[in-house]
Amino acid sequence: MQHRTVFEVMTHKVITAAPQTPFKQIARLLAEHDVSAVPVVDPDRRLLGVVSEADLLRATAELPDLEGRLAGVRLLSQERGLPDAETAAELMTSPVVTAQPRWNLVETARTMQRKGVKRLPVVDETGRLVGIVSRSDLLRPFLRSDTAIRDEIEHDVLADTLRLAPDTIRVTVDDGVVRLTGRVDERADVRVIVRLCRSVDGVVALHESIEYAYDNLALDVEPPR
């Protein structure tokens, strides 16, 4: 039993830009392919950076309006002695937070949340771009059928991993919500069962009413059942 990996859910055919790709062509790529960002790669597909809609807007936000007024207090690039951002190399954000194909979806979601990003370019061990994974990709496991979730819990978790006898634990799944009932020997077993079943991809929530014959956690800080 294991979580799905980034490789299984990522987009494999990624729209990219070269460092010399001009501003207008990048805007066209975003519009034509209905994406909000494009990775920038060298001729060997090594990732150099990412240009997003936010980067394009940031570049145009410094331009004056029709009456020549600047937005806020920021100076124009020319007034700072800097050239206008015309190419992907000048527009891109770098370095970039990336993911690896073998990462599981939990690890990837935590990275996205921690870094505050909506997508992660996926690179191999050499730094070459092999895909891109987005927030919507991470939600795909929740489209799994209740039958698939129940089968994985019954076979992969309860039978193969925990070696429980058939019908020790009864499993029902309704819209991703798992309910476990049954009886085990030790109270500690309940913790293990719940933890492993909860980690199955596609499980939205889990409720258990599992009885036990022996309370081997009697000295634990948890309140009694």
Topology summary:
Blueprint: H1 6-9, H2 23-32, E1 37-41, E2 47-52, H3 53-61, H4 88-91, H5 105-115, E3 119-123, E4 129-134, H6 135-138, H7 146-161, E5 169-174, E6 177-186, H8 187-198, E7 205-214
Parallel strand pairs: 6-7
Antiparallel strand pairs: 1-2, 3-4, 5-6
Can you tag this structure with a few keywords?
225 residues, single chain, three-stranded mixed β-sheet, elongated, 7 strands, alpha+beta, two-stranded antiparallel ribbon, 8 helices, 21% strand
Care to describe what's here?
With 225 residues, this protein is α+β, with helices and mostly antiparallel strands. It has eight helices and seven strands. It has helices at residues 6-9, 23-32, 53-61, 88-91, 105-115, 135-138, 146-161, 187-198, and strands spanning 37-41, 47-52, 119-123, 129-134, 169-174, 177-186, 205-214. The strands form three sheets. Strands 5-6-7 form a three-stranded mixed β-sheet, covered by helices on one side. Strands 1-2 form a two-stranded antiparallel sheet. Strand 6, helix 8 and strand 7 (205-214) form a beta-alpha-beta unit. It starts with 5 loop residues before the first helix and ends in an 11-residue tail after the last strand. The relative contact order is 0.14. Mean pLDDT is 87; it is low at 73-83. It comes from Streptomyces roseolus. Residues 145-214 form the BON domain. Residues 10-66, 92-152 form the CBS domain. Keywords: CBS domain. This is CBS domain-containing protein.
